[in-house]
């Protein structure tokens, strides 16, 4: 027999998934749920913790539990796709806001990421991405000026990848990616509509040309409730006889 908290979890999760409970709706209080289901506070809290763990609700201290939007946007992990290309797939109103565009000398951290010396110059590009009037992605990109001699506001607000491939005639080949969950920084809070979230999903990108030249290091910082990161995997047997 299923534990009571799992039954409560399943019932509420189903109501969220089928739209009976709308995004941003406040759930019944713990006391109300205890009466409704005839269970203890501990059982209710286990159900709510599971709902939060799987992204159905956000618990806010002193305020209660709120329903999250479970209709998340697919963000491909393995592919190399620009935000402009992603926007076409999403099918919603999107906008790119250029926050910073400057030519800088790299600090020690950026020298390490781009594998360059202090004599190199790099383009620093910070852009906020809006989807449905909410600023939910902060892109911080650094381009080696050796490969990208110039950038403009128009290029950055359109598609830098498109400019690199179609104007500069370079071929973008592959990228190495790292995905982590981090505490939101002051910069995240400044540029993003984080609402009550204090964590962001960070995708670090190291992007290479077809001659294996590393030309870009970037951090794409996402509000955690609006994306699911997807990939396709095919099984390979490393040890056929094992």
UniProtKB/TrEMBL annotation:
Keywords: DNA-binding, Repressor, Transcription, Transcription regulation
Gene Ontology biological-process annotations: negative regulation of DNA-templated transcription
Domain HTH gntR-type: 2-70
Signal sequence bounds: none
GO molecular function: DNA binding; DNA-binding transcription factor activity
InterPro entries: Bact_HTH_transcr_reg, Chorismate_lyase_/UTRA_dom_sf, TreR, Tscrpt_reg_HTH_GntR, UTRA, WH-like_DNA-bd_sf, WH_DNA-bd_sf
Protein name in the entry: Trehalose operon repressor
Superkingdom classification of source: Bacteria
